[in-house]
Design goal:
Layout lengths: L11 H19 L2 H26 L4 H27 L5 H30 L1
Helix pairs in contact: 1-2, 1-4, 2-3, 3-4
Length: about 120
Amino acid sequence: MVEVYLKLGELEVYQLSIELGREAWRIYGVLPKSLRFSIGDQLLRSADSVGANIAEGFGRYHYLDSAKFYYNARGSLWESKHWFFLLKERKLIENNVYDSANDLMEKLGIKLNNFIQSTKKQHAK
């Protein structure tokens, strides 16, 4: 069996998490200043936390440690979904902006779930 060693930046799941952070920053930049320190900060923290947890899990030695951080990333993804939804519901972002972010988060969620499962399977052998 040949082992393949990937760099963090080569992982599609990580690349998608970076894109989510970029999208959150774009939205943050157009929010009224009065909202940046409330809903804006929460959006940034949750979106950036997805990638940060993937990175931390990737750097762990034991797969159970890694999986814990990947589960945290999934929780942060769901929190991000919440903040994007509230922004749309409160008419702070356009529907097309929400739809685009939601599509990204759905794709990221699928990739993250698959990544978690593959991590567990690789180490169960």
